[in-house]
Specification:
The complex is a heterotrimer of chains A (317), B (567) and C (372).
Chain A lengths: L2 H28 L7 H19 L6 H29 L4 H22 L2 H12 L15 H19 L1 H11 L1 H6 L4 H28 L8 H14 L4 H23 L9 H23 L20
Helix pairs in contact in A: 1-6, 1-9, 1-10, 1-11, 2-3, 2-4, 2-5, 2-9, 2-10, 3-4, 3-9, 6-7, 6-9, 6-11, 7-9, 10-11, 10-12, 11-12
Chain B lengths: L4 E12 L2 E12 L2 E6 L6 H8 L7 E6 L2 E3 L4 H6 L2 E4 L11 H6 L10 H15 L14 H14 L4 E5 L7 H16 L3 E6 L2 H7 L2 E6 L2 E7 L5 H9 L16 E12 L5 E12 L2 E5 L6 H9 L6 E8 L13 H9 L3 E2 L13 H9 L4 E2 L3 E4 L5 H6 L4 E4 L3 H5 L6 H9 L11 H13 L16 H14 L4 E5 L7 H16 L3 E5 L3 H7 L2 E6 L2 E7 L5 H9 L2 H7 L1
Parallel strand pairs in B: 3-8, 3-9, 6-7, 7-8, 13-20, 13-21, 18-19, 19-20
Antiparallel strand pairs in B: 1-2, 1-4, 4-5, 9-10, 11-12, 11-14, 14-17, 15-16, 21-22
Chain C lengths: L13 E5 L5 H26 L1 H5 L4 H13 L2 H26 L7 H19 L5 H30 L3 H23 L23 H20 L1 H11 L1 H6 L4 H28 L10 H11 L4 H25 L5 H21 E5 L10
Antiparallel strand pairs in C: 1-2
Classes of the chains: A mainly alpha (317), B alpha/beta (567), C mainly alpha (372).
Chain lengths: 317, 567, 372
C-alpha cells in the first residue's frame, strides 16, 4: 500500500491514545477541574485492563467477552482514580494542581508495581488479536486499527454531541463556567463535577489500555505512558475544548510523533541520528505555538472554562 | 378583596459564625401583591430572601408555603415551590445565549431543542411586555437586558413568587419605569413580587406593603398607602438622623486639575470617554453623577495613569506659588534650569538668578527655603504611569470602587496595606515596616477601625472597616487631588458619615476632591459642583447648592445628541 | 409535597461553613492524624501488593520500621537522605517565588534539567583545558543562565499575552528532555546514549560529598525566606499574586515583576541543576532530575509557600521515599513502591487541609460541634 496512506493510518492509530486522554480531560475541565492526574489515571486504566486480561487472557471465554471485560475493568480502575480526585477536589475542595500531581505520582507508581507482576505473554499475545477485530490478520496497515480505535472516535464524537447538543451538556458547561449560577438554577453542581470527572477518567483510562495492549502491544509500553498523559492535557488546548476536534488534533499529534521514524524511511531525506530527538520534540513545540497563538487571538469562545481550577463553596461570602 | 397567603416565615434565624444575620423573623407574602423589604445595607434583607430561595438554610424557624410546611434546601427546591430569585449580581453564564441561560436547569419533557425554547421565551416576553433577543450572548448585553433575562428565567420556570434583589441599582430612570410596569402586569397576573431595596421613593411608588428590617430584626410591616417617607426612614434607621451633611463654602478655589478634550477607547475599540473637559478646583468637592458604567471608572483611571488615553490633556497645577523649591523631586540641574527661566523669587520678592553663584551656595539657599516659586507648577499627566506621576512629586490619591480587588490586598494586614504606597522608601531593597505600623495604629485609633490587630487580614474586616483603612491610607498620603469612587457603597449610615466628614476635611484643607456617587441626595448635599456624565459624555456641570434632583436625573439619561436634536 | 417529608430529613445531612483562625497546635494535630491515617492505609495497600507480607502478617512491624531504617539506619543513609532533601528543597524553593505570584510554574523539572545540561556542556567541552576553579565557576554560570532562560521564556508570553503558564512550562519540560537526548547523541556517538562520568568539574569536598550541598540548600532557604518576607521584591511579588489591579494601582510594573520573578525561579532551578551536575553526577541523562521537579510543586504547596516549612515537607517526602525504597529492597518488590506510598500519604495530607479550613455541622448537632 501507499507509503503515505500507511503513514496516515499509523498517525491515526497512535493518535487514538491522546484522543481518549484529552476527551476525558475535556469532560473534567468542562466541569471546572484541571485534572493533572490524567497521566496517572491513564496508567491505572492500562494496569486495570491488563490485570483483567492477565486473569482471562488465555481462558476459554468467548473473544468478545474478553474484549468487553478488559475494557470494563480498565474503565473501572480509571474511574476509581477519578473518584479519589473528585473526592479530594470537589468534596474536600483541595487544590486541583497539587491533587492532580499527587494522583499522577500514585497512579504511575502503582501501575509499575502491578505491571511488574503480570505476565506479558498472557495479557498481550492472544488478546491483541481479539482487540484488532475486524482487521486482525490483515497484511496491510489497516491491521493497526481495531475495536478500541473506533470506540475512541465514537466516544469523542458522542462527547461533542452531548456537550453541545443536549441539556446535560449545557448544564455541565454551565457548571464549569459559573458554578454559582448553575447552583442557583437548581443544577446539582457536586453531582455534575463528580460525574464528569469520573466518566472523563474512565475514558482517559481506556487510552492507557489502548496504548499498552493495542498500539504498542509490547512489554515495555507502559514505561512511556506517563508522557502521553501529559500530552493529552496539552491536546485539550489544541482542540480548544471541543472533543470532536481532538480527533483531528490527535491525528496531528500522532503524525508529529511518527515523523521521526517515518522521515527516516523516506529515501530522499537524509536523517542523522542527532536529528531524531529534535523531531521528537516537534509535538511539544507545536503545542507551545498553538498555546501562544490562541492566547494572542484571545477569542471569547476559545478560552478555558471560566471557573477552571477554582473550588466551589456555596456559602462563600 | 380577601388576600390569599402565599408564603409565611416564622421565627427564622440565621447566623454566620458569631454574626447573627437574621433573628427570629416573621413575615407573610400574599398573592397578587408587591412587597418591599426595606432596610439599610447589611441589615439582613438579602440573607432572609436567600433562605426562601434556597441559597442558605435557616438555623431556626419554619417556612410555610400554601399552608404546608416547606423545606427549601437548594434553589431547586425553591423552584419546585414556585419561588424564583433575581440576584443583585446576576447569575448568568456569560458565554451562553439568553435562551440557553433561561432553560438552564429546567426539567422538560421531550428533546432539548433551542428553537422551541426561543419560541417559548418570546411568548413570555410578549405576555409581560419585555424586549429580548433569545439568541444574543450575555457578554454582549447591557445590564438592563441581563436583568430581563433573569426575570424571564424565573418566569419560564413558572415561578409565582418573584424576589428581586436591588433591581433598580443599575438601571436608568426610564428602565426603572419599564421594570415597574412589568412588575405591575405580573401583580395583576396574581404573582407575588418581593423587592429588596433601600430606596424609599421606589418603595412608595411601586409596592403595596413594606416590611422593614433593621440589624437582622423585623421591625414592622406596613401598608404603603398608610405610611410616609419620614416614618419609613425612622423605622429603617432606628432614630431620626440628621440627613444634612456639613458643607462649608469653598475658600478661594484655584484650578487644580484641568482636563481637556479627553478621549478614551477600550480594547474592543468602543469609545468610552468622549471629549471630556472640566476643571477641578482645590478646596471644593466635585461630584460626578451618572448611571453606573458611564465612564466614571475610566475617567478616574485616566487621571491616575491606569488607563491609556487616546487624545486630550490632563493638566495638574501644583500649588507652589510662593512656596520654596525643594530637592525632593528635582535635581540641582533642574532647579538651575528653572532659575534660568526666571521661575523663582526670594522672600523679599526680588527675582532670583543663580548666575555666578557657587553650587554649594545654591544648595544652601534651596535647603534654607529662600528660593520661592513665582507661579504654580504646571505639569501634564497624560501618558504617565502612577509611578512616574509620583516621582514628579504629585500626590494623587484614589479610592477605587473595587476596594479589595484594587485598593487593598485582602490577605495582608493593615500594616502591609499601609505599605502599598510607601514600601519603596525602605533601604537596601529591604522593607521598613516600622513607619507603616505606626501609621496603621494611628488610623485604627483615629477612624475607630474594629480589628483584632494590625496584621489581621483586611479581607476579614467588615465593609465599613475595609473602607476606612483604604480612605485612611489615601488621606495619609497628603494628597493634592483625592478621587473617590462610590466610597460609601455597602456601608452603614454611621460609616458613611465618617467618610463624608473625612472628605469634607480634605476639602477644607485645600484638596481637590472628586466624588463619584450614585445617591443623588448625597451628591447634592455633599458636593459643591456636580458633573453629570452619560455614556462617556459630560451632559452638564451644575451648582450642587441650587440644582434639583430631577434636573440631574434627566442629564444622566439624555445624551447630548438627543438634546441637540430636541433643541 | 414538602409536608410529606419524614421528620428526619428536615435539614441537610451535613453542612459546611468556613472556619478561620484555628489554633496552631490543633491544625498540626490534624495534619499528624492525617499522616498516621495515611501510613495505616499504606500498610493495607502494601499488604495487598507484597506477597511476603501476606504470607507472614507479622512482618508488618518490619514494614513500618523500614521507614526509620531507610533514612536513619546508618550514617550513610542519613547523609543520603539529607542530600536528597537538599536537592528537593532547593527545587521547591526555586518554585516558591513564582507560586507566591500565582504563576503556576510546573516546569521546574525542565528548568533544572537545562541547568544540569548547561553545567555538563561546559564541563564536557572545557574540562581539563582550563583551571578547575575557573571551570566550576563557568559551570555554575552556565547552569544559572540556562535555568534563567528556561524560566524566562514562558514568563515573556505570560506577561505579554497572558498565555497559560501551567501548560507552557509543562511542555518546556519535554523540550528540555529532548534537548538533552540531542546533546547525548552528539556527545556519545556510539549510540549507547550514556555519558561516562566526567573527570573534571567536581565540587570540592567538605566533611563529605554531601555536606556542601546541604549547606547551600540551607543558606538558600534562609535567603529566600528573607527575600520573600522582608524585601521590596518579595512584597511586590505578594501584591502581584494577590491582585494585578492593585499592583498597577500602586505603580508596580507588573510585567517586570513577572519577568524578574520567573528569571529568579529559573536561575534557582539552574543552581540546583549545577549542584546535581557538579556536586553529584558529573554526567547527564534525561532522568537526571528524576521527577523531583514535580514533587517539588507539592512540597512547596504543602508548606503553604513558606520556605522554612519546606524543610519539613521535603524531609517528610524524602523519608517516605527512602523508607519505601528500603521496603522494596527488603521485601523484594518493584522499585516504584515509593511513588505509591508518597501518593497515598499526600492524598491524606491534602485532604486534611479541608478539616483545617472548614467546619462541619452534622444534623441534630445544632450546637455547631466541629469534627476533628
Amino acid at each position: 500500500m501507499n507509503i503515505w496512506l500507511n503513514f496516515l493510518i499509523d498517525s491515526l492509530a497512535f493518535g487514538a491514545t491522546f484522543m481518549y486522554g484529552s476527551t476525558g480531560e475535556i469532560l473534567t475541565e468542562k466541569a471546572g477541574h484541571l485534572n493533572l492526574g490524567i497521566p496517572g489515571i491513564m496508567c491505572m486504566g492500562g494496569a486495570g485492563g491488563c490485570l483483567m486480561l492477565n486473569l482471562i487472557g488465555t481462558s476459554s471465554l468467548p473473544p468478545f467477552l474478553i474484549v468487553i471485560l478488559g475494557i470494563l475493568s480498565s474503565v473501572l480502575a480509571a474511574m476509581l482514580m477519578g473518584l479519589i480526585y473528585s473526592f479530594l477536589t470537589v468534596t474536600l475542595r483541595a487544590n486541583q494542581n497539587v491533587t492532580g500531581l499527587a494522583l499522577t505520582t500514585f497512579g504511575v507508581g502503582l501501575m509499575k508495581v502491578i505491571m511488574s507482576k503480570l505476565s506479558p505473554t498472557v495479557y498481550l499475545v492472544t488478546p491483541k488479536a481479539y482487540y484488532r477485530w475486524p482487521f486482525a490478520g490483515r497484511q496491510d496497515s489497516l491491521q493497526c486499527l481495531g475495536v478500541l480505535f473506533f470506540l475512541g472516535v465514537a466516544i469523542a464524537a458522542v462527547s461533542s454531541i452531548v456537550l453541545y447538543r443536549t441539556k446535560v451538556g449545557l448544564h455541565l458547561r454551565a457548571v464549569g463556567e459559573n458554578p454559582a449560577t448553575a447552583d442557583a438554577v437548581g443544577i446539582n453542581v457536586t453531582r455534575y463535577k463528580y460525574a464528569a470527572t469520573c466518566i472523563g477518567s474512565g475514558i482517559a483510562g481506556l487510552g492507557g489500555f489502548y496504548y499498552i495492549i493495542d498500539y504498542m502491544a509490547s512489554q515495555e509500553a507502559y514505561l512511556s505512558l506517563e508522557a502521553f498523559g501529559w500530552l493529552s492535557i496539552a491536546l485539550v488546548i489544541f482542540a480548544l475544548w471541543r472533543p470532536a476536534r481532538t480527533i483531528i488534533g490527535s491525528t496531528i499529534f500522532g503524525f508529529l510523533f511518527s515523523c521521526s521514524s517515518f522521515i527516516t524511511n523516506l529515501s530522499f531525506i537524509q536523517v542523522t541520528m542527532a536529528m531524531k530527538p529534535l523531531l521528537k520534540m516537534l509535538p511539544y513545540v507545536f503545542t507551545i505555538i498553538v498555546l501562544i497563538i490562541s492566547s494572542v487571538r484571545n477569542k471569547r469562545e476559545n478560552q478555558p472554562p471560566q471557573s477552571l481550577g477554582l473550588p466551589y463553596f456555596r456559602e462563600n461570602r | 378583596m380577601e388576600k390569599q397567603l402565599a408564603l409565611s416565615m416564622r421565627g427564622i434565624t440565621k447566623r454566620f459564625g458569631s454574626v447573627t444575620a437574621n433573628s427570629r423573623i416573621d413575615l407573610d407574602i400574599y398573592r397578587g401583591e408587591i412587597l418591599s423589604i426595606l432596610g439599610e445595607n447589611g441589615c439582613g434583607k438579602t440573607t432572609l430572601m436567600n433562605m426562601i430561595a434556597g441559597i442558605y438554610f435557616p438555623d431556626e424557624g419554619t417556612i410555610t408555603i400554601d399552608g404546608k410546611e416547606a423545606v427549601i434546601r437548594s434553589p431547586k427546591d425553591a423552584f419546585e415551590h414556585g419561588i424564583g430569585m433575581i440576584h443583585q449580581h446576576f447569575k448568568l453564564v456569560d458565554l451562553f445565549t439568553a435562551a440557553e441561560n433561561i432553560v438552564l436547569g429546567v426539567r422538560e419533557e421531550g428533546r432539548y431543542n433551542l428553537k422551541d425554547v426561543n419560541t417559548r421565551v418570546s411568548a413570555i416576553a410578549d405576555k409581560y411586555g419585555f424586549h429580548i433577543d433569545p439568541g444574543k450572548k450575555i457578554y454582549d448585553m447591557s445590564v438592563s437586558e441581563k436583568q430581563t433575562v433573569e426575570i424571564i428565567k424565573v418566569l419560564y420556570r413558572g415561578a409565582d413568587i418573584l424576589i428581586l434583589d436591588e433591581p433598580t441599582a443599575v438601571l436608568t430612570p426610564q428602565e426603572i419605569d419599564r421594570l415597574f410596569n412589568v412588575l405591575r402586569v405580573m401583580r395583576a397576573d396574581g404573582k407575588s413580587i418581593v423587592i429588596i431595596t433601600h430606596k424609599l421613593n421606589e418603595v412608595l411608588e411601586v409596592s403595596d406593603r413594606v416590611a422593614i428590617l433593621r440589624r437582622g430584626e423585623h421591625i414592622a410591616t406596613v401598608n404603603t398607602k398608610d405610611t410616609s417617607e419620614a416614618e419609613l426612614t425612622e423605622m429603617m434607621v432606628g432614630q431620626k438622623v440628621n440627613l444634612n451633611i456639613q458643607r462649608s463654602e469653598p475658600v478661594c478655589p484655584q484650578p487644580r486639575l484641568v482636563v481637556r478634550g479627553l478621549n478614551v477607547y477600550d480594547k474592543e475599540g468602543t469609545h468610552i470617554l468622549k471629549d471630556i473637559s472640566f476643571t477641578a478646583m482645590g478646596g471644593e468637592i466635585l461630584g460626578i453623577a451618572g448611571i453606573a458604567g458611564s465612564g466614571q471608572r475610566e475617567l478616574l483611571e485616566s487621571i491616575t495613569g491606569l488607563q491609556h488615553v487616546q487624545s486630550g490633556e490632563i493638566i495638574f497645577h501644583n500649588p507652589k506659588k510662593n512656596q520654596p523649591v525643594t530637592f525632593f523631586h528635582k535635581s540641582l540641574a533642574r532647579v538651575t534650569e528653572l532659575a534660568e527661566d526666571h521661575a523663582f523669587h526670594d522672600p523679599e520678592g526680588n527675582p532670583v538668578s543663580f548666575r555666578g553663584m557657587k553650587k554649594t551656595d545654591i544648595i544652601r539657599a534651596v535647603l534654607e527655603g529662600r528660593i520661592l516659586f513665582n507661579e504654580d507648577e504646571i505639569m501634564n499627566l497624560r501618558d504617565k504611569d502612577p509611578l512616574e506621576i509620583r516621582q514628579l512629586g504629585i500626590h494623587l490619591s484614589f479610592v477605587p470602587e473595587d476596594r479589595l480587588g484594587m485598593g487593598l490586598v485582602g490577605s495582608m494586614g493593615i500594616t502591609d496595606n499601609m505599605m502599598l504606597r510607601s514600601y519603596r522608601k525602605g533601604h537596601y531593597g529591604l522593607l521598613d515596616r516600622k513607619k507603616p505600623k505606626d501609621l496603621a495604629e494611628e488610623i485604627i485609633q483615629n477612624l475607630k477601625i474594629v480589628t483584632p490587630g494590625t496584621s489581621y487580614p483586611v479581607r476579614r474586616l467588615s465593609g465599613g472597616n475595609v473602607q476606612k483603612v483604604l480612605v485612611g491610607r489615601e488621606i495619609a498620603y497628603t494628597p493634592k487631588v483625592l478621587m473617590a469612587a462610590y466610597p460609601v457603597r455597602g456601608l452603614d449610615i454611621h460609616s458613611s458619615y465618617t467618610i463624608y466628614n473625612l472628605l469634607n476635611k480634605q476639602k477644607e484643607s485645600g484638596v481637590a476632591v472628586l466624588y463619584v456617587g450614585e445617591d443623588l441626595d448625597v451628591l447634592l448635599a455633599l458636593c459643591d459642583r456636580i458633573m453629570v456624565i452619560n455614556a462617556g459624555e459630560i451632559t452638564g456641570i451644575v451648582d450642587a447648592r441650587t440644582a434639583r434632583k430631577e434636573e440631574i436625573g434627566l442629564m444622566m439619561t439624555r445624551s447630548n445628541r438627543a438634546r441637540k436634536e430636541g433643541a | 409535597m414538602a409536608g410529606t417529608h419524614a421528620a428526619g430529613v428536615r435539614e441537610p445531612l451535613v453542612h459546611l461553613s468556613r472556619r478561620t483562625g484555628m489554633p496552631f497546635w490543633k491544625s498540626w494535630l490534624i495534619r499528624l492524624a492525617a499522616l498516621a491515617a495515611g501510613l495505616l492505609i499504606c500498610g493495607a495497600v502494601a499488604f495487598i501488593l507484597i506477597e511476603k507480607l501476606r504470607d507472614d502478617p507479622g512482618k508488618l512491624g518490619d514494614f513500618y520500621c523500614a521507614f526509620i531504617k531507610g533514612s536513619f539506619g546508618t550514617s550513610r543513609k542519613v547523609w543520603k537522605m539529607l542530600k536528597n532533601l537538599a536537592i528537593l528543597l532547593s527545587i521547591s524553593l526555586a518554585l516558591t517565588p513564582a507560586f507566591r505570584m500565582r504563576f503556576w510554574n510546573i516546569g521546574a523539572e525542565g528548568q533544572t534539567l537545562v541547568g544540569v545540561l548547561g553545567a555538563i556542556a561546559v564541563d564536557f567541552y572545557l574540562g581539563g583545558k582550563i583551571p578547575e576553579g575557573l571551570l566550576i565557576a563557568l559551570m555554575f554560570l552556565a547552569a544559572l543562565l540556562c535555568g534563567g532562560v528556561w524560566g524566562l521564556i514562558p514568563a515573556v508570553f505570560k506577561a505579554k499575552w497572558n498565555t497559560n503558564e501551567t501548560l507552557f512550562t509543562l511542555m518546556m519540560n519535554y523540550v528540555a528532555t529532548f534537548l538533552v537526548s540531542y546533546f547525548l547523541v552528539i556527545w556519545v556517538p556510539s549510540g549507547s546514549s550514556s555519558l561516562a562520568k566526567l573527570k573534571y568539574g567536581k565540587l570540592p569536598t567538605l566533611v563529605n560529598d554531601y555536606f556542601l550541598i546541604v549547606m547551600i540548600a540551607l543558606l538558600l532557604t534562609i535567603g529566600l525566606y528573607i527575600y520573600l518576607n522582608y524585601s521590596k521584591h518579595g512584597y511586590e511579588i505578594s501584591v502581584v499574586g494577590e491582585s494585578v489591579n492593585t499592583a498597577k494601582y500602586v505603580g508596580i510594573n507588573v510585567r517586570r515583576v513577572i519577568l524578574r520573578t520567573m528569571i529568579l525561579s529559573g536561575v534557582l532551578c539552574g543552581l540546583t541543576g549545577f549542584l546535581i551536575a557538579s556536586g553529584l553526577d558529573r554526567t547527564i541523562t534525561t532522568e537526571s532530575v528524576g521527577g523531583q521537579g514535580f514533587t517539588a510543586i507539592m512540597v512547596s504547596w504543602l508548606a503553604n509557600f513558606n520556605p522554612l516549612m519546606m524543610i519539613l515537607t521535603s524531609g517528610l517526602i524524602q523519608i517516605l521515599n527512602q523508607g519505601a525504597a528500603q521496603i522494596s529492597q527488603d521485601f523484594n518488590v518493584s522499585g516504584a513502591l515509593p511513588s505509591v506510598i508518597v501518593g497515598i500519604i499526600l492524598f491524606f495530607i491534602i485532604g486534611s487541609e479541608f478539616f483545617i479550613n472548614y467546619r462541619l455541622h452534622f444534623r441534630h448537632h445544632k450546637t455547631r460541634e466541629a469534627i476533628r
